[in-house]
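TICKET #2291
ISSUE: user wants both folds in one file
ATTACHMENT 1:
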Amino acid sequence: MEGRRVVVSALQFACTDDVSTNVNTAERLVRAAHGKGANIILIQELFEGYYFCQAQREGFFQRAKPYKGHPTILRMQKLAKELGVVIPVSFFEEANNAHYNSIAIIDADGADLGLYRKSHIPDGPGYQEKFYFNPGDTGFKVFHTKFAKIGVGKKFFPFPFIVLALCLFNSLCRSLIELLHSVCQQFAGISGFQRQLELWYSKVQKYYFTQLLLVLNLKILDLILVITGSESCKGMPEPIWTSNMGLFPNCYYVVPLVASNRVGKEIIETEHGKSEITFYGNSFIAGPTGEIIETADDKEEAVLVTHFDLDVIKSKRHSWGVFRDRRPDLYKVLLTLDGSNPQL
């Protein structure tokens, strides 16, 4: 019996600071992905211009536009309908006096399925998003598109040295996890593997806010889509970035992950002079158990494409017992900020 098959794509390109040029590039690459058979196509975060959050400049608020009637969303709706593809569209949203880092989900018939607003907002040198964005108020949403149930996230990354440390830790753990998985399946069952993975998973949870992934998976989804603007970290071994991004969402929840990042050098004038970020690229598509299937480099534009049988993945997810063995009655401490006085 033929299963539910989906063909996904991650795009990657260098942005200029001209909206028309960037939207034209996005459309060209969407068409290229469609030409390769893709029907869910992911464009990188805030692709209409430079990553302006390097600086706190009040003039940059003029880049925000209301959700309804947004010209780039309207254009992507027409494109999605023409090609019969799903396109998530990232944009800087103005909502009365509030502003959000948002993403609209466009279905294959051009219908706008709704909005997700980024929930966790970073603040630090080069990533001063709290100056521009309110914390999202939409909650974590699963969108039922023509081809798959998808969840979207906008990644909140720590500073590069923390990324590097976590990536090195994850890379070391990968081979141990594979060995442990094999042993536990033979002698202790999958729940033994799950408990050990939960231990490692908790070590990075505070940096990646992976509660988003748990909530999305509890709502039953087929694919996780992640968009980001992440800079290069000198000395970061290859393929550390993809290993780090793919390991925990995939191995823990047994769900494919599609990640899109930008490339290129962007210079923004700040109150302290010029700020420069070189974006890391390395967009990728990972399979349901953390395996990297397709990946781009750190310099060139790319159109990554791969296919999944969602029914086969669903059976694998159920066989791992991850959701069977959860104990939500013990997790109420997660509803506190300091870990004290949970109402157990």
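ATTACHMENT 2:
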Amino acid sequence: MGNTLDFCKDKKEVEKKEEKESNLLTKNDEIPNAESDPLAALERKQNEIFSRLQCLRDTVKQLSTKYTMSTVVTSSKTAVTSSKSVQGTSSDQSSVPLLSQQKLNLGDVIHDLVVSADPDSPPLSLLVLYKVASEMFKVFATSYVHSSVVVMPQNLREVFQNGGCTKRDENEVAFTLLWKKVQNGPTLMVNPHKQTVIEGESNIARYIQRLINPDFDKCVVGATRIDEWLDLAEQYVRGNKKENAAVLKSLNSKLGSAEWLVGNTLSLADIVMWSVINQSKGQKDFPSNVKNWLQRCDRNPYFDLANGAL
């Protein structure tokens, strides 16, 4: 008898608990069971999914409008490569100026830039950027030859005339170029005291560009396209003949509809690509658009010092 009462008591408690949980379910949260219409439940779930997709579509549309981004739809057969994405359009308005309108405050201590580079592959872009930086800062530039260099061309030895006639402490930036044998491209010692090193001509150029123009990254589209060309420049330096031919093809295609690689004026992309192409020893015959572009760069006063180092 006692067991029967306990069973009834437990049964009532279970039924009461189930009734309480059932009341917590909302209309949309009802779980279809054997007694409900499965088609109606499926239709309800489908409508919920469509409603959520519509909300996502509206959100993406709002973000696209806010950030002036265009939606690009590609088929499964379309392959988008970096060499195609950097080409842009003839109406490109993504220009990134070399110089900023507002000068970066470097503080009271002179800003040291120490570059180690192999004279067999001189980082010509850094010589161009030195000329650009000289319009923004007072730059004290010197060059030295390391004992690891056996043969040193005279035009590279005296590229900076060892600081000219100014004193080091009268300047804002000290640019030191140390000619030495390096295996993996030039290196930049940003802070000799902390031994902070940046490797590769493209990466060094990126650093100096942001020193000259702190607003460089404000034009996201332009800065991204420049970075893509700089990546291709590194590929050209380290690539084989097939890879280099692909880079030149992309370069020639872009220059068929534009005078400069990014935007409508000279940019860091042009400077670095010009440098690596002029460093190539095996390639002498370039496509017509590339030749015209090289000559356009040569006529720019920023390239005078670098041309003297060739």
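RESOLUTION: both attachments delivered.
EXTRA DETAIL ON ATTACHMENT 2: The radius of gyration is 32 Å.
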